[in-house]
Design a protein that fits this description.
Radius of gyration: 12 Å
Order of helices and strands: EEEEE
Distance between the termini: 16 Å
Helix content: under 10%
Number of strands: 5
Number of helices: 0
Structural class: mainly beta
Amino acid sequence: MRVKDVIIGEFYRVRNNDFAWAQAVEIIPPKTGVNNTNSTLVKCNWVTSKKDKFGLIKYFKVSSLVKEKE
């Protein structure tokens, strides 16, 4: 996936992980704020169901997010 394909508020899967969802909250450019890496990160709300209102905050590389097959 590319940075321009990520939509804030949408749910995505993480590569090789089929039991949880990552809801995009914020896109963080390289070397800014909490991102001290050379790649763009996506701040995500990590939930087990799309209906959940509570989840963990995790940071993923854009390349590790994938759209769910419909």
